[in-house]
Amino acid sequence: MSGEVNVPARPVRVSSSGQGLLADLRQVLPSILILLALLIFNAFFTPYFLSVQTLNVNLTQVATIIIVAMGMTLVIATGGVDLSVGSLMAISGVIAPLIFLNPAFATLQWLGIALAFVVPVLVAGAFGLLNGLFVTRLKLQPIVATLVLYIAGRGIAQVITGGQLQSFNTPAFAYIGLGRPFGVPFQVILMLIIVALTYWLVKRTVFGRYVLAVGGNETAAGLSGVPVSRVKLAVYAISGLLAGIAGLIVIAINSSSDANQVGQGMELDAIAAVAVGGTLLSGGRAQVLGTLFGALIIQLIRFTLLAKGVPDAAALVVKAAIIIIAVALQQRRRRE
Fold first, then answer.
1. Please, what's the b/e burial string for 145-161 (b: 16 or more CB within 10 A of its CB; e: otherwise)?
2. Which residues have CB under 8 Å from 195's CB, separation 6+?
3. pTM
4. Environment class of residue 209 by beta-carbon count within 10 Å: exposed (0-12), middle (13-18) or buried (19+)?
5. What is the pLDDT, as a whole number, of residue 244?
6. CA 330 from centroid of its chain's CA atoms
7. CA 28 – CA 278 distance, rounded (Å)
């Protein structure tokens, strides 16, 4: 029949909102076991590993990766990818000091600090939305669409600052990176909140089901009434917003903003965390808890190698090998 619509046979993968936390933990059990093995190994063979200082070092180093990886999980779940997150971190990181160091806020520093927390994140979110427009309106492949800002975004950040390092000493702003309420790094608390919100979004909302439906079978999702374009716009915007938050944390820790360094390589770290965590790179699944454990595994492997005197360059090779193994296991699982 001439009016017949052919829909690909690939099924739509939609996780039931009724799935409990225990069921999701069982799905990422291999990652949990690997993480436990690394913890036990370091507890016995790495001096001072079982200390609050070591725990804080590892958590603060991985916090920004996990925050960005939450947005990357949503993007990849729709069948896309976001290569621009590192550049968006740089843009957010250079805008913030320009706001709170502006002489206009000399007498109203609290206002400058508040705007520095909000405006850069919204700008990063707007650029993320632009990525979504490239994908939905111009029909560019996600890797090409986000490659535009991967290249141009860091250039924009450098133009904004004239390529100059911005240093500052503003305790109120630095709190996002250096604050320790009740002895816990503030950025770790923020990370846990973002993980919890992302998990809730995927498991308990209609939007979360739409994300998985679009990644599982975009054509079928569209025919079922899912607003495919709006879903894609939303996930890229969320990815941009989270990259913006991560950018603020990085400059707050360093008390300086360098457009050349902020977010460098973050896109690869985030993708690695998602892949190791079990989210299919082809879309249709969002393992939020898996991404969390994947990032922790990569961080602990890197820490273990460095603690044993292995050069950081070698640790990068190990990270690449982990990604290859994770993707290979995904492909095998799909064939089965």
1. bbbbbbeebbebbbebb
2. 66, 70, 288, 292
3. 0.91
4. buried
5. 97
6. 20
7. 7
